[in-house]
Amino acid sequence: MSGTCVAAVIDRFGAAEQLQLRGLPLPRPGRGQILVRVEAASVNPIDVRRRAGYGRGLLSLMGAARLPLVLGNDFAGTVCAVGSGVTEWREGDPVFGAKPPDSR
Q1: 58 secondary structure, DSSP code
Q2: CATH architecture of the domain covering 4-98
Q3: Predicted pLDDT at 102
Q4: I need a surface site. Which of 7, 13, 79, 85 has the fewest CB within 10 A?
Q5: Rounded to an integer, what distance in angstroms lies between the CA atom of residue 70 and that of residue 84?
Q6: Pairwise CA distance, residues 91 & 10, whole Å
Q7: Model-level pTM greater than 0.85?
């Protein structure tokens, strides 16, 4: 596994031109977390609206409005690492879900 991943990122809120595909450091799963090699992700209306700044006040209260912001919350892929305390998932398991708004 390489030390980077590719993500759809914005550095400031605004028009579609703000969206960039960028390499980011690969996160390590913490206690109770898994790391997923994403094989498919969606761009939903909420991603488009968040890019434009929708919900910034509420997301700030959650600690989830920090920039750069990684968009694309819905995903499907394969577990590639598990954090301590994880017993339900193993490396290689297929998974799908939605990441929390503050997750990278």
Answers
A1: H
A2: Alpha-Beta Complex (3.90)
A3: 67
A4: 85
A5: 25
A6: 30
A7: no
3-state secondary structure of 90: coil
**Residue 104 binned pLDDT confidence (cut-offs 50, 70, 90):** low
Say which amino acid occupies 45: P
Amino acid at 66: R
Q: What is the pLDDT of residues 35-49, one digit of tens each?
A: 999 999 988 888 888
Residue 45, preceding peptide bond in cis (omega within 30° of 0): no
Check whether 101 has a pLDDT greater than 90: no
Closest by CA position to 27, among listed 63, 3, 11, 62: 3
Is the pLDDT reported for residue 65 higher than 70?
A: no
**Where do the structural domains in the chain lie, given as residue ranges?**
4-98
CA pair distance 94, 77, nearest whole angstrom: 6
